[in-house]
Amino acid sequence: MTDEQRRAFLLAGTRTGILSTVRADGRPHAAPIWFTIDADDVMFTTAADTVKGQNLRRDGRAVLAVDDATPPYSFVIIEGRAELSSDMDELLKWATILGERYMGPGQGEAFGKRNAVPPELLVRLRPEKIIALAAIAD
Description:
Layout: H1 3-11, E1 17-22, E2 28-33, E3 36-38, E4 41-47, H2 51-58, E5 61-68, E6 74-85, H3 88-103, H4 108-115, E7 120-133
Antiparallel strand pairs: 1-2, 1-5, 3-4, 4-7, 5-6, 6-7
Helix pairs in contact: 3-4
């Protein structure tokens, strides 16, 4: 995929991603997330006290996998480091964008207000490596 194709793929519909983080004992942890992108950065929210929130606070390494499970199959894998923020203005902005994407038109503001509260965190996953393949079964 080109960069433009990859961004379009990541923003298509309500496709979710699987975020993998590293537990304190080194075991992997994977969880589905709602996300959006800001240029090449992946933006999502999580509560600080969730497994992924605790993992990211301790060790910012993460991998996001997003796929299209219909033929001819495509996927994007993003490896990187997470930057966490508890800035409520930024959290509200991105939670609103996520709400609009996943809950539907007109629902973003209510979702954003509900989720832009402590202990929620804004996560910016900065890519260090990206693999993006389209139509792999063609």
